[in-house]
Amino acid sequence: MARSVSxxxxxxxxxxxxxxxxxxxxxxxxxxxxLILSETPxxxxxxxxxxxxSPAIGLVAGHWQNDSGAVCENGLREVDLNLDIAxxxxxILREQGYQAEVLPxxxxxxxxxxxxxxxxxxxxxxxxxxxxxxIARMTHSSAPDREDELVELLYESYxxxxxxxxHLNTITDDMRQYHALRQIAPETPGAIIECGFxxxxxxxxxxxxxxxxxxxxxxxxxxxxxxSDSTATPAAIPVE
Length: 240
Fold this sequence. Notes:
The structure is a single chain. 48% of the residues lie in helices and 12% in strands. It is of the alpha/beta class. The protein folds into two domains: 38 residues; 175 residues, 3-Layer(aba) Sandwich (Aminopeptidase). The longest helix has 37 residues. The chain is globular. The protein starts with a helix and ends in a 13-residue tail after the last helix. About 2% of the residues have low confidence.
């Protein structure tokens, strides 16, 4: 009789353990599924309440999924800064109701990419003596007037948000002939920005990336506002 009671007690403990294990595994699987689905653009937009017809914005995080970009003596990597800034910009734009996605440097989606705005985000070299930012469009643009306006609005909003000055004399042919600007659809207005020097502007880029992101987002919002007659386009995001 004692052995029978002992076996029943053991089975009861095992049954309870199996039950709690199934519950734990079920919750873990559900959380994992939600995490995966939330990274799917269409699901993410639906969860955020973003309408399918809202303007799309493409952001390249320079060097992401390809190489490190510039690397400073203290180990600071350009790719990490680029990705952090791009994700912050995308978050701001989604909060304003726009479809925004962050793309790797050589995403297959770049070929013929269509969007209301396209911007590739980079940071400059580790030279401590240099400070400033720069923006460029492709030299032989299919829509030079629109892209000039995009560049101008980005210059204005970025300088206002960050306090940096343009560093125009270091704009290179590599920027003007940037591969992604040659790959996107001709009707997609695009540009590339170097957000600052990882040397002279390191504090801003590492300690105040929200200011950087707001400067970029406000330029994009201003451009979309200039291209639309809609009064529903949000005003500029304040810099905190």
